[in-house]
Amino acid sequence: MKCIIAIEACPEITALGFIVSDLSGCFSAVDTLDNAIDNASEAIDLWYER
Predict the structure, then answer these.
(1) What is the CA 21 to chain-centroid distance, rounded?
(2) What's the CA gap between 24 and 22, in Å, rounded?
(3) What is the pTM of this model?
(4) With 70 as the cut, is the pLDDT of residue 1 above it?
(5) Boundaries of every domain in the chain
(6) Residue among 1, 30, 2, 34 at smallest CA distance from 18
(7) In angstroms, rounded to a whole number, what is the distance separating the alpha carbons of residues 22 and 49?
(8) Closest alpha carbon to 33 in 13, 12, 50, 8
(9) 37-44: which pairs have CB atoms within 8 A and are 24 or more residues apart?
(10) What backbone phi and psi angles, to 5 degrees, belong to 37?
(11) What is the pLDDT of residues 11-35, one digit of tens each?
């Protein structure tokens, strides 16, 4: 399954937040862009498990 994720920088707290637009309430935050894809995949898996 392919999902679109939106990543937004939060400079005040030096983190990146992301949401998965197709899955209501599926979101997370990461410290680096490199971690975003791995964390997005994990967030999607957890979203389906709920």
Answers:
(1) 10
(2) 6
(3) 0.74
(4) no
(5) 5-49
(6) 30
(7) 16
(8) 8
(9) 40/3, 40/5, 44/1, 44/3, 44/20
(10) -65, -45
(11) 777 788 889 989 999 998 888 888 8
20, β-bridge pairs: 5
3-state secondary structure 1-50: CCCCEEEEEECCCCEEEEEECCCCCCEEEECCHHHHHHHHHHHHHHHHHC
| CB 24 within 8 Å of CB 42 | no
The C-alpha atoms of residue 29 and residue 25 are separated, in whole angstroms, by 13
Q: What is the rounded radius of gyration, in angstroms, for the C-alpha atoms of the chain?
A: 11
- Burial (CB < 10 A; 0-12, 13-18, 19+), residue 30, is middle
Sheet holding 5-10, edge to edge: 5-10, 15-20, 27-30
Q: Which two tokens stand for residue 1?
A: 């399954």
